[in-house]
Write a structure and sequence with these properties.
The chain is α+β, with helices and mostly antiparallel strands and 225 residues long. It has 3 helices and 11 strands. The strands form 2 sheets. It has a 6-stranded mixed beta sheet with strand order 2-1-4-9-6-7, with no helix packed on it. A 5-stranded mixed beta sheet has the order 3-11-10-5-8. Strand 1 and strand 2 form a beta hairpin. The protein is globular. The protein starts with 41 loop residues before the first strand and ends in a 9-residue tail after the last helix.
């Protein structure tokens, strides 16, 4: 294809790239405004595994659970209604304290690559690569992303500060992986969320869904995300 008034062969060179699920090299992702990451106040590791549910449907597991949240009772509605007994299947992690540093190591022994996406934050990529992890953690102006690659048979260590109250989803950005339960939630600063909720909009959305569900008798088989 040619553009311009006169057709001619382009003189530019094609961009060389590797055909695969890969992040840019970390050397290309140095933030312009430098930031240093503090030591972890809270840390944990979560393994990516696979299995099947009671209906024999394929499921991804994260934080020892496979995501199952119900459209008629989302997490923010539970917060608003002061329902503190959250379903274990929601994969929910509570982060109650303000301005603490959270480190989460995501690890997999399965040879499948996953783009990991976090809502509510740009996270810091503290370590990333193929197993085994050598224990190194980069806290000196590491890349800041909202999505970073978890390599097949690899690891991804992310860090962020609890500076944004809310119920924040973390999931694989491959649609059907999320559909199959590859997700968890961070419930951040739960006691501060209620006054931030637009309850009228939340109520309208839930009412619309309940009307639709009652009309068409929807059978929810996916993660609800």
């Amino acid at each position: 294809m040619h553009y311009g008034k006169k057709a001619k062969e382009p003189i530019t060179s094609a961009w060389a790239f590797e055909d695969g699920c890969l992040d840019e090299p970390a050397s290309n992702l140095v933030p312009y405004v430098p930031k240093t990451v503090s030591a972890a106040d809270w840390s944990d590791m979560t393994d990516v595994t696979i299995g099947r549910n009671s209906a024999n449907l394929f499921r991804w597991y994260l934080n020892s659970t496979t995501m199952q949240v119900f459209w008629e009772d989302p997490t923010l509605l539970q917060v608003f209604n002061n329902q503190t007994d959250y379903s274990e299947s929601s994969g929910l992690i509570k982060l109650p304290n303000a301005h603490e540093w959270v480190y989460l190591m995501i690890n997999t022994s399965i040879p499948v690559t996953h783009p990991i996406h976090l809502h509510g934050h740009d996270f810091f990529v503290l370590a990333q690569g193929s197993n085994p992890w050598d224990g190194g953690v980069n806290t000196n102006n590491p890349p800041r992303r909202d999505t970073a690659m978890l390599a097949g048979n690899g690891y991804l260590l992310i860090g962020f500060e609890t500076d944004n109250p809310g119920a924040w989803l973390m999931h694989c950005h491959i649609g059907w992986h999320t559909d199959e339960g590859f997700a968890l939630q961070f419930l951040e600063r739960e006691r501060e969320i209620d006054p931030l909720i637009d309850f009228d909009a939340l109520q309208d959305n839930c009412a619309s869904w309940n009307t639709y569900d009652a009309t068409y008798n929807i059978d929810q088989e996916d993660s609800g995300v």
